[in-house]
Amino acid sequence: MEAQGASKTYLVPDVEAFLVHTIARTMDRTDVWEKPIAIKMMTAQAKPGLTKRIELRNVGEECLIIDAWEFKQRRWPSPNYFKNMGSIAFGMASVATRPIDITLELVSEHFTTMSHVLRQVRDLHQHKK
């Protein structure tokens, strides 16, 4: 990814692939942060197995987009809120089903790095305009 080179931050292949798929899944979303993240997480936790994993992954992806692109930053509860909530959501998603989803566990561990790379994507895109 061009953003990895610009940021001099490199992702392990599974995390890089996940980030590419996240961008594709979230590109056209218009519902980012319409509901409080904590409510979305609590609602997702009440779901069974695979549905829980998917919904928690969606919360993690939403937090990643908000954190990386500093979406509505003036309304953030704290500077690290979305970083923390996103990492937690991915971590909980990784153990929502058996066997554990190793990719989601990796994503949880590399949330901050992914956010940094995604912020570079935004910055590169803005400079090209």
Could you provide a short overview of the structure?
This protein is mostly helical. Helices cover 70% and strands 0% of the residues. It has one domain.
Topology overview:
Elements: H1 2-7, H2 13-26, H3 37-45, H4 49-69, H5 81-94, H6 102-109, H7 111-128
What descriptors fit this protein?
129 residues, mainly alpha, globular
Specify the overall morphology: globular
Low-confidence stretches: none
What is the number of beta strands?
A: 0
Q: What distance lies between the first and last C-alpha atoms, to the nearest angstrom?
A: 19 Å
Helix/strand-derived category reads mainly alpha
Mean pLDDT, to the nearest integer, reads: 90
Largest sheet: none
The domain tally reads: 1
β-strand percent reads: under 5%
Helix content: 55-70%
Number of helices: 7
Model description:
The protein has 129 residues and is mainly alpha-helical. The chain is built from 7 helices and no strands. The protein has helices at 2-7, 13-26, 37-45, 49-69, 81-94, 102-109, 111-128. α3 (37-45) runs antiparallel to α4 (49-69) and α4 runs antiparallel to α5 (81-94). The protein is globular, with a radius of gyration of 14 Å. It has one domain.
